[in-house]
Structure to design on (748 residues):
């Protein structure tokens, strides 16, 4: 994997760059639609390509439980399995495993938990998590991190951060032994909302030859103000020449704030989850299609939008599909929402290139912020 | 609407033709995917076009209840509403209304029933059913017919057939007053499995200047043998120069049998319903993706198939999507199934053109019949 910063914004820390993986170029800042189960919900790979998507993120933990990483490997790896020949990032599943809370047993060796399917006990270690991702054959892999909820006691956050560091070293060893040309391993900065813990996490991870740095443990209930604060002191200490990835974020306003601070990569379920719920992102704010005001509204979701959904269908038709329980409704609004995020990132990159990111962000959020940041 | 028979098969009553509607040419024999709620379930109009679909059938009764025919009319008619600029046939909803059985009150004037939504009483008359279809703006409309279940007493079947005739005359009057250039109204032959009733129905409907003739009240439990018998004596008495439409059929074997008897049009929910249930039509028989034998099967659904699903995904991947509860599974298998029916009809037309329909049918069903006609 190679990463190049090609342009820095004149008035902020925002940057334009390119990540080159074995499956193509990913222009940054990038938003990656989530394909947990090796599918971006409701959309075909052909539709994702038409939307200009260059990278998606799948989940190693989920795919290991079902259909099993050996099945995916034997079928040619995750790209061939899901018919997606562009970049695939895999999350380790640390976040998901630690969300199981009551059923898990954490030791230095790893985590034991009950499978949500048959209920049998499953054991995941840092080594195993990398072996899964190597079997999947993803382009960018994430280490097994110890995630803590918010709020979190300082000593618990510290222990989790230190364990994440030790686990990342074990991940790195397994990765270095097994990686094939161009595959990458990132680190994940932990430390909850404690500045000294975050900085120690950055320092420790910096000792390893990792290909990029993610900020984990945010957008878990700490609120937008605290998240911004953590990003402020964390991002600027990450290496300039490595991609920076804010995991699980998020809302347009939060993404653009983070781009301004120098973050390069994002992922979130929002465009597809909201799409399935009948909630559309538009330049004029959020549209909830179940609202009766759209019953006879012949306008597209977003007047200026060039996506297939907006070129073809009215709000009234989409609303009808939702009320009729038609699956196509979910597909069409998911498609529009992913397009919305793609366009937002494309415009952000153009703004960085022309040195006008601050102005772009301000104008974009003028409307968005009122709608989304409540 | 214009219909031309361009070629008759040398050894059977099968024929190749073209229906020209205000929204294009429909090559016959044709299979029309069902879009009850103004959407062919899980598929976009763009995907249907790519599959070569030239006509779909929507349901006037359903669209009248939701979103209401005035809404569709005010939004530019059903074509614009659903983003489909090719031919739209609308069924009247007679079949659906009479399926409500216990809650309906039938009189010579029409049918009163309880809306399945709010429960309020709704009244449909022959005139109203045509007014709905005129508001929708479909290309080919169906009259309000009195459908009877199977088995059915002879006097009940006779009364329903005669009422269908009287209602069709009223439909025809309303249609003639309201139709716009090129719109068509078909008749629906009723009479259950009683030969003299069917023939009387054909004779009576023949007195009207209708644009085509459908055979209704079949594929309702009478079984394949009785259906063939009814078609045998009914189809040959229908006018040669008008399209013949076998409603709600069906399985590949039944379709090809009917093509051989001179039927031109078909519709059925099977390709999309089976697609959503994980059941795929293939040249080698039915594939049920929940079956464990497909767990690591890297072959496409159908080896010789050129559809997007088969070009891109393995059976193992599709099975994974179904087990993961992913909506994309339904889309991909529906897409394949519609493609299968499109190809079957395209091959059937080619066979008629080259005078080899009998041979084509025999070879096609060699495999299919074993699988589907049980």
């Amino acid at each position: 994997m190679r990463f190049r910063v090609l342009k820095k914004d004149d008035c902020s820390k925002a940057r334009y760059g390119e990540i080159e993986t074995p499956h193509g170029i990913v222009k940054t800042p990038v938003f990656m639609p989530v394909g947990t189960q090796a599918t971006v919900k409701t959309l075909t790979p052909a539709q994702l390509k038409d939307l200009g998507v260059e990278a998606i993120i799948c989940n190693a933990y989920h795919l290991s439980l079902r259909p099993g990483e050996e099945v995916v490997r034997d079928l040619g790896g995750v790209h061939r399995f899901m018919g997606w020949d562009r970049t695939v990032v895999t999350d380790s599943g640390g976040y998901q495993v630690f969300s199981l809370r009551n059923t898990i047993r954490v030791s230095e060796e790893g985590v034991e938990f009950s499978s949500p399917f048959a209920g049998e006990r499953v054991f995941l270690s840092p080594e195993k998590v990398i072996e899964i991702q190597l079997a999947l054959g993803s382009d960018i892999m994430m280490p097994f991190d110890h995630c803590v909820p918010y709020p979190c006691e300082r000593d618990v956050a510290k222990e989790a951060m230190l364990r994440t560091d030790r686990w990342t070293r074990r991940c790195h060893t397994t990765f270095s032994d097994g990686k094939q040309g161009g595959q990458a391993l990132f680190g994940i900065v932990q430390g909850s909302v404690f500045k000294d813990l975050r900085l120690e996490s950055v320092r420790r991870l910096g000792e390893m030859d990792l290909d990029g740095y993610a900020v984990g443990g945010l957008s878990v209930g700490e609120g937008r103000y605290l998240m911004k604060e953590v990003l402020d002191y964390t991002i600027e200490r990450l290496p300039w020449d490595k991609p920076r990835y804010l995991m699980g974020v998020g809302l347009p306003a939060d993404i653009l704030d983070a781009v301004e601070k120098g973050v390069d990569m994002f992922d979130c379920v929002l465009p597809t989850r909201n799409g399935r719920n009948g909630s559309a992102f538009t330049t004029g704010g959020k549209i909830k299609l179940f609202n009766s005001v759209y019953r006879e509204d012949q306008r597209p979701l977003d007047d200026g939008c060039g996506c297939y959904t907006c070129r073809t269908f009215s709000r009234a038709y989409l609303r009808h599909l939702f009320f009729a329980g038609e699956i196509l409704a979910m597909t069409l609004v998911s498609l529009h929402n992913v397009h919305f995020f793609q366009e937002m990132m494309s415009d952000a990159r153009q703004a960085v290139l022309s040195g006008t990111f601050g102005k772009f962000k301000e104008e974009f959020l003028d409307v968005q912020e009122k709608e989304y940041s409540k």
Summary: The mean pLDDT of chain A is 96. Chain A touches chain B through 39 residues (CB under 8 Å). The longest strand of chain A covers residues 2-8.
